[in-house]
Design brief:
With 150 residues, this protein is an alpha+beta fold. The protein contains four helices and four strands; from the N terminus they run ααβααβββ. The protein has one domain (5-149): Hut operon regulatory protein HutP (Hut operon positive regulatory protein HutP, 3-Layer(aba) Sandwich). The two termini are 17 Å apart. It holds the Pfam family HutP. This is Hut operon positive regulatory protein.
Length: 150
């Protein structure tokens, strides 16, 4: 069974990616630490999917969210990123070939979202920002969430 509403991994990833400066300090340093979730944030903009994946993976490794030497951790992160990109791109995970570009903030949250610890750890990747033609001012907001078990 999932933990209480406030302990939800995906919900916390979305709240973290949407939080602005002072909101982030209040939200992340107390709430996520109390839940023993590991987390980080970053930004990326590109017309190329591989650059987005690489930026998120690099941030996750540098912040100790995943161990780059353990395949299952990187595999789980990769699938969470791709699932989140499905939301951002409305199901067609393609950017440059379709003359689309994104400017995204991202958050990564890792923890145990179930009452039974034997269910193991999970990862959530939340993306929020803009997508549109590669012309400033013609983009619109977008959001995506991906969750995968480790």
């Amino acid at each position: 069974m999932l933990k209480h509403e406030r302990d939800r991994l995906g919900k916390n990833a979305i709240l973290l990616v949407l939080a602005e400066d002072k909101e982030e300090e209040l939200f992340s340093t107390s709430h996520l630490d109390e839940l023993q979730f590991r987390y980080c944030k970053g930004k990326v903009g590109s017309m190329e999917l591989q650059k987005i994946v690489a930026a998120i993976e690099t941030t996750a490794k540098r912040n100790g969210i995943v161990n780059g030497e353990i395949y299952r951790e990187m595999h789980a992160l990769y699938h969470a990123i791709i699932e989140a990109m499905h939301g951002v791109t409305r199901g067609q995970v393609d950017l440059g070939n379709m003359l689309r570009t994104v400017g995204l903030r991202f958050s990564i949250v890792r923890g145990i979202p179930y009452d039974n610890d034997q269910e193991g750890e999970w990862l959530a990747v939340a993306l929020y920002g803009t997508i549109g033609a590669p012309v400033r001012g013609l983009e619109h907001e977008t959001i995506g969430l991906g969750i995968n078990h480790i």
